[in-house]
TrEMBL record:
Reactions accelerated catalytically: Endohydrolysis of (1->4)-beta-D-xylosidic linkages in xylans
Species for this entry: Micromonospora pisi
Domain CBM2, residue spans: 350-450
Name by which UniProt lists this protein: Beta-xylanase
Example of a GO MF term: endo-1,4-beta-xylanase activity
Active site residues of this protein: 265
Residue ranges of every copy of the GH10 domain listed in the record: 31-330
The enzyme's E.C. designation: 3.2.1.8
Length: 450
């Protein structure tokens, strides 16, 4: 008899005995123990995820374990800048789309990794600098987050921007050299492109209170104080043979700033301590009510970037390791989460006028460039098409437009619907965007419908 049936039989016997004694009983619903990682995490309101590669999607053992145990996916490489924009302005979403489709078909959420990172940049981006790089980077964030809009649970908007060692400061990189505000510019652009995704900062060597994690803590505190849209912090947790004693306290201090925390790339060197460390990390997450999920960086040991470290929960044949049991037990023993809403900074939709249409514009700008998101709202009658007119200040120019076609790129510029977003029912909205150099438009755009 399996465990669930044994429990059921015991409850039946107890109830029968109590009723026989003439007493009234009220049965509380029994909390059942999850028998897979995804079930156990879901019972506690959390996800349990894995980094995946589509090149493994035809491997039977891999897929069996993946679909049985995980309810969140992240692309190990296929949503990175070099994969999604191999040539400037030419986007390739093949791998990312396949991962999203697999997740959707199997009741899994998706973490997006990573919009901006100093590593795995395409060659063309590595050769840019200054405002050309800044504009390209923000365009990348906007385009990729727009493509996946509505499909991503959490985005790693910026990855690994802080230096190792004792400085607590930023890492030197081509992105950092575009100006210290590159991180907040990326978060604003990501929010405008996908208001429903949680926006995370993600880093490693942050597994306790140390100079690097404190530098990140100070940035998050500053972002929250100034309204920069950050929702979560990812702790990669690529771990060795010991775990910092203040691992949980560190998660907790970030949560106290008003952000969710997530364990995003967990793997642990195999050895006598592997199961203990996996268990301790899971217990720490479960003890922090804003720790919303755990992702391990691969499925089986032989899928791992860490090769001979055998750093994951399954061996190469898909067998569960002792570390698996430690994680499952910790999930089942843990507490629930406190869900938090995202706080979109998009403008509210203006009331529709009689017939016609209205347009509102939200601007994310920095020295030398901007991204504008325009929301078009049909009035009291349906539209078959629309044109939005805006005026750019002197010296400004539109360099890129999405979900609309632009006529002109300086001075007065007109944006007309594309094939799929001209038809709007009364009161319905659609959005398009454009990017430019110089300063963005200062006044409200006008909208005409046909
Ligand atoms: O796809 C090419 C293949 O065509 C080529 O033949 C082969 C030859 O080297 O390279 C393959 O690309 C490799 C890619 O992984 C896919 O396997 C790259 O060389 C290799 O550099 C790349 O490594 C990835 C690494 O990020 C790059 O920095 C790892 O898979 C990936 O696990 C790792 O993930 C990072 C996170 O994104 C951020 N945090 C740290 C983590 C571990 O380094």
């Amino acid at each position: 008899m399996n465990r669930a049936r044994t429990l059921k039989a015991m409850v039946t016997l107890a109830v029968a005995g109590t009723l026989a004694a003439g007493m009234t009983v009220i049965l509380a619903p029994a909390a059942s123990a999850g028998t897979t990682l995804r079930a156990a995490a879901a019972e506690k309101g959390r996800y349990f995820g894995a980094a995946v590669a589509t090149s493994k999607f035809s491997t039977g053992t891999y897929m069996t374990v993946l679909n049985r145990e995980f309810n969140s996916l992240v692309a190990e490489n296929e949503m990175k800048w070099d994969a999604t924009e191999p040539q400037q302005g030419r986007f390739n979403y093949t791998g990312g789309d396949r991962i999203v489709s697999h997740a959707q078909a199997n009741g899994m959420s998706v973490r997006g990794h990573a919009l901006l990172w100093h590593a795995q940049q395409p060659g063309w981006a590595q050769s840019l600098s200054g405002s050309a790089l800044r504009n390209a980077a923000i365009n990348h964030v906007t385009q990729v987050a727009t493509h996946f809009r509505g499909k991503i649970h959490s985005w790693d908007v910026v990855n690994e921007a802080f230096a190792d060692g004792g400085s607590g400061g930023r890492r030197d990189s081509n992105l950092q050299r575009t100006g210290n505000d590159w991180i907040e510019a990326a978060f604003h652009a990501a929010r405008a492109a996908d208001p429903g995704a949680k926006l995370c900062y993600n880093d490693y060597n942050t597994d306790g209170v140390n100079a690097k994690s404190t530098g990140i803590y100070n940035m998050v505190r500053d972002f929250k104080a100034r309204g920069v849209p950050i929702d979560c912090v990812g702790f990669q947790s690529h771990l060795g043979t010991s775990l910092a004693g203040d691992y949980q306290a560190n998660l907790q201090r970030f949560a106290a700033l008003g952000v969710d925390v997530q364990i995003t790339e967990l793997d642990v060197t195999q050895g006598s301590n592997q199961a203990n460390i996996f268990g301790s990390v899971t217990r720490a997450c479960m003890a922090v009510s804003r720790c919303t999920g755990i992702t391990v960086w691969g499925v089986r040991d032989c899928d791992s970037w860490r090769g001979s470290d055998n750093a994951l929960l399954f061996d190469c044949n898909g067998n569960k390791k002792p570390a698996y049991d430690a994680v499952l037990n910790a999930l089942n023993a843990g507490g629930g989460i406190t869900p938090s809403p995202t706080t979109p900074t998009n403008p509210t939709t203006p009331p529709p006028g009689p017939g016609g249409c209205t347009a509102s514009l939200s601007l994310n700008s920095w020295t030398g460039g901007f991204v504008a998101t325009v929301r078009v709202t049909a009035g009291s009658a349906a539209t078959n098409g629309w044109t939005v007119t805006t005026t750019l200040p002197s010296g400004a120019a539109v360099t890129n437009t999405w979900s609309a076609s632009a006529s002109g790129n300086t001075g007065t510029v007109q944006f007309t619907n594309v094939s799929y977003n001209g038809r709007l029912n009364p009161g319905q909205t659609t959005e398009f965007g454009f990017q430019g150099t110089g300063s963005g438009p200062g006044s409200t755009p006008t909208c005409t419908a046909n």
